[in-house]
Automatic annotation (TrEMBL):
GO molecular function: dTDP-glucose 4,6-dehydratase activity
Source organism, top-level taxon: Bacteria
Keyword terms of this UniProt record: Lyase, NAD
Family: Belongs to the NAD(P)-dependent epimerase/dehydratase family. dTDP-glucose dehydratase subfamily.
The encoding gene: rfbB
NCBIfam families: dTDP_gluc_dehyt
Species the sequence originates in: Larkinella knui
An annotated GO BP: nucleotide-sugar metabolic process
Name of this protein: dTDP-glucose 4,6-dehydratase
Lineage of the organism: Bacteria, Pseudomonadati, Bacteroidota, Cytophagia, Cytophagales
C-alpha cells in the first residue's frame, strides 16, 4: 500500500538512518524529511538517497505552527515518525529553554497539526513518537532495568523535556483518540553521530591527540545500541506496534564510561598503528556533569517477544565499524567540527 510518511529530524544522527531505511526499503512510500538543520542537522548524512524519487526534504521548524499547518495542507500524510529534538544533555544544562521549545512546544504543535489535519478520521493513520530511556531517571541497584512501566523520573532538562513530550503524546492518544505509539531507546552509536557525544568525541580526540575528557570518575553506565538496530526497531514498531503502546529499545549492552573509553583507545591504537597504551595516555578526568545520571539499562523483552526484533550486531563489531566509518569520513568530521556546513546552509537558505 502506498503511504506518505513525515519523518521529523531526518537530517540528524538517528533520523538520517531512519530516512535511509524507509526510502530504500519501501520504494512505494513517499518520505518527507522535515528538519530545521540546526547545528546537529546535516544533509551530508543523506547524499546517497537525496535524489531518490520517493524522497523530499523540507527545511522547517516544528515550533512554527502555521508552517506545520501549511505542510500538512500540502501533503496528505498517513503517518508521522517524530525524531526532531534537541538531544544533548550538556547543552540542556546551559540552555534549557531551547529544549522546552523544540521538544515540548514543537511536539505539541506536531500533535495538534496531525489531529486537526486528520480531522479525527484516524483510520490508517499513525503518530510515532521517538523518545529516550533517560525519561526513567537513573538506576542505582545493579539488578534493576527500565521497563515500559517504570515510573518517569527525569533528572536533566533534556530528559524532563522528553518526558513532557511523551506525556503530551499519550494525552493526545487518550483525549482525542490520536493513534499514537512510542518507543524509549537507550544510547545510540554509529556512523554520522555528532562529535559532541561520548563515542564520536573520543574517536575524534584520539585521532587528533587531544585530551579525552572523562566526566567524574568515569563510573557512569550507559547501555549502547548500534544506530541501525534502532532504525530497524523503529521500522518494526511503526508497522507492527500496537496503537497506544510503548516499546523499550536496547541492546542489553551496559558499559562503564571509563571501560568504553579504554576499549576505544585499544581499537584506535590498532587502527592508527600506535603501540598499545598510547591513546589511553590521553585520558583526562574532568569535573563531573551536574546531576549526572549514574546508570541507564533497558529491558527490551517486550519488543523482542511481541514484535520479534533483536539487535543484529555485537558491540565490539559495531564499535569497530563505527571507528572505520569515522576514519573513512574525515571530510564529514572536518565539516561538522569546523561548522563549515552550518555556514553553508545558512547562506544557501538565506538566498531562497
Ligand atoms: P540529533 O541531535 O542528532 O538530531 C536532531 C535533529 O532534529 C537534527 O537534524 C535537527 O536539525 C533537528 N531539529 C532540532 N530542532 C528542530 C526543530 N525545532 N524543528 C525541526 N527540526 C529540528 O538527535 P538524535 O541523536 O538523532 O536523536 C533523534 C531522536 O531520538 C531525539 O528525539 C532523541 O531524543 C531520540 N533519542 C536519541 C538517542 C541517542 O542516543 N542519540 C537515544 C534515544 C532516543
Ligand atoms: P552522552 O554521549 O552525552 O550521552 P548521554 O548523556 O545522553 O547518556 O554521554 C554518555 C556518557 O558519557 C555520559 O555518562 C556522560 C559521559 N561523557 C563523558 O564522560 N565525557 C564527554 O566528553 C561526554 C560528551 C560524555
Amino acid at each position: 500500500m502506498s503511504k506518505k510518511i513525515l519523518i521529523t529530524g531526518g537530517a540528524g544522527f538517528i533520523g538520517s538512518h531512519v530516512v535511509r531505511l524507509f526510502v530504500t526499503k519501501y520504494p512505494d512510500y513517499q518520505v518527507v524529511n522535515l528538519d530545521k538543520l540546526t547545528y546537529a542537522g546535516n544533509l551530508a548524512n543523506l547524499t546517497d538517497i537525496e535524489d531518490a524519487p520517493n524522497y523530499t526534504f523540507v527545511k522547517g521548524d516544528i515550533t512554527d505552527a502555521s508552517f506545520l499547518e501549511q505542510l500538512f495542507g500540502e501533503h496528505a500524510f498517513d503517518g508521522v515518525i517524530h525524531l526532531a529534538a534537541e538531544s544533548h544533555v550538556d547543552r540542556s544544562i546551559s540552555d534549557p529553554m531551547a529544549f522546552v521549545m523544540t521538544n515540548v512546544v514543537g511536539t505539541v504543535n506536531l500533535l495538534n497539526t496531525a489531529k486537526n489535519s486528520w480531522k479525527s478520521d484516524f483510520s490508517g493513520k499513525r503518530f510515532y513518537h521517538v523518545s529516550t530511556d533517560e525519561v526513567y531517571g537513573s538506576l542505582h541497584n545493579p539488578e534493576d532495568f527500565f521497563t515500559e512501566t517504570t515510573p518517569y523520573d527525569p533528572q536533566s532538562p533534556y530528559s524532563a523535556s522528553k518526558a513532557a513530550s511523551d506525556h503530551f503524546v499519550r494525552a493526545y492518544g487518550n483525549t482525542y483518540g490520536l493513534p499514537i505509539v512510542l518507543s524509549n531507546c537507550s544510547n545510540n552509536y554509529g556512523p554520522n553521530h555528532f562529535p559532541e557525544k561520548l563515542i564520536p568525541l573520543m574517536i575524534h580526540n584520539i585521532q587528533t591527540n587531544k585530551p579525552l575528557p572523562v566526566y567524574g570518575k568515569g563510573e557512569n553506565v550507559r547501555d549502547w545500541l548500534y544506530v541501525i538496530d534502532h532504525a530497524r526497531a523503529i521500522d518494526t514498531i511503526y508497522h507492527r506496534g500496537k496503537t497506544g503502546e510503548t516499546y523499550n529499545i536496547g541492546g542489553f549492552n551496559e558499559w562503564k564510561n571509563i571501560d568504553l573509553v579504554h576499549l576505544l583507545c585499544r581499537i584506535m591504537d590498532q587502527k592508527l598503528g600506535r603501540s598499545e597504551g598510547t591513546s589511553a595516555q590521553l585520558i583526562t578526568y574532568v569535573t563531573d556533569r551536574a546531576g549526572h545520571d549514574l546508570r541507564y539499562a533497558i529491558d527490551a523483552h517486550k519488543l523482542m517477544n511481541e514484535l520479534g526484533w533483536e539487535p543484529s550486531l555485537q558491540f565490539e563489531e559495531g564499535l569497530e565499524k563505527t571507528v572505520d566509518w569515522f576514519l573513512a569520513n574525515q571530510e564529514w568530521l572536518e565539516n561538522v567540527t569546523s561548522g563549515a556546513y552550518q555556514k553553508y546552509y545558512d547562506s544557501m537558505y538565506e538566498n531562497r
